[in-house]
Description:
By secondary structure, the protein is mainly alpha-helical. The protein has helices at 2-24, 31-37, 39-45, 63-68, 84-87, 111-115, 121-135, 141-146, 154-161, 191-194, 220-226; strands at 139-140, 211-212. It has a two-stranded parallel ribbon with strand order 1-2. Helix 2 crosses helix 3 (39-45). It is globular, with a radius of gyration of 21 Å. The termini are far apart. It binds heme C (4 copies). The site of one heme C has 22 residues, from helix 4, helix 5 and helix 9.
Amino acid sequence: MKKLVFALCASAVLLVTLATTAEAAPDYEGRKKCGSCHRSQLESWEKTAHAKAMDSLAPKAKAAAKTKARLDPNKDYRQDVDCVGCHATGFDHEGGFDPKAPNKYLTGVGCESCHGAGSDYRLLHRKAGQAFEKKQQTMPRQQLVEAGQEFGFEERCNACHLNYEGSPWKGAKKPYTPFTPKVDARYHFDYARAVRNDQAMHEHFKLDKVFTGPPVPSFHEEFQSKATPGVKGRED
Ligand code: HEC
Ligand code: HEC
Ligand code: HEC
Ligand code: HEC
């Protein structure tokens, strides 16, 4: 009997551990949440190539580029699992883009493609924003990292831009991007240059400095020194 009770307790502990581990991975939620507080970034992002990435998968769109990369310009690739991983947000992850039930807030390369799945850290943004407003209290960025927010960026860019056979990036695996420097030299990817490309990246707006300390992203100071005041959105 004692043994049985012990075994039951042990499996209960194991179940609880498994449940909390599963809970620990944040979900993708889509840009509507982010945009409700960061309206300026959302409106700026909407004008970028990243926002329109899903449109490139439609039949007839970018026909010449597709032909050159040996794709079929008349085919509809918008539900193709070999494409949507890089042209939508969070494909194959909890809460992320599902080609069978496309959610319009997850189409294109959205906020969470670069900043990380947001279900946990966005709650900290709310909390920190309120504490800052009331008491000028700040929060360490490290807490956001623990909730799944990305500050390194480069690996995320690489996973889409440098994911092809023979790539200098070590993480490359199928499905690969059809648009490689071999197809056309203009597909060459240089992080330091690309992250400053304001056709592709949203504009930067001045932060109140609610979050402090490491990790500070590369070019953070540069972006903030040129940033303009933004409009904060309503909360949902
Ligand atoms: C309830 C409002 C709210 C929501 C929702 C929200 N944020 Fe924030 N976020 C804030 C506030 C407040 C700050 C602090 C801004 C400041 O320092 O001026 C912040 C800061 C940030 C920063 C800058 C962090 C730094 O290094 O200082 C990023 C990046 C960001 N948010 C991205 C996002 C993304 C992506 C989402 C959606 C997953 C999101 N936020 C959702 C309120 C929100
Ligand atoms: C989820 C995949 C994904 C991630 C992550 C991603 N990109 Fe992209 N990026 C794309 C796709 C797809 C396009 C092409 C959009 C289109 O035209 O259909 C693109 C386009 C661009 C372009 C424009 C290229 C041109 O020829 O005009 C730049 C610059 C760029 N990305 C930079 C970055 C940087 C910098 C990062 C990281 C901070 C990043 N991207 C993260 C998928 C991604
Ligand atoms: C591993 C990520 C990845 C996959 C998978 C992927 N793409 Fe892309 N795609 C990109 C990136 C990154 C770019 C931007 C390249 C650039 O401009 O530097 C892009 C750009 C494009 C463009 C625009 C090219 C141009 O010159 O404007 C089209 C069209 C496109 N992709 C279609 C597809 C189709 C169709 C598939 C599936 C068969 C696919 N992609 C799969 C990452 C990917
Ligand atoms: C292609 C990658 C990419 C996408 C997509 C993206 N961001 Fe960013 N974002 C960045 C980078 C890089 C920075 C600069 C980080 C820094 O300076 O700390 C940044 C900075 C920010 C900041 C800090 C203040 C500022 O303006 O620099 C906020 C807030 C933010 N992003 C919100 C968003 C929201 C909301 C979306 C979606 C509508 C979004 N981002 C989409 C890459 C991206």
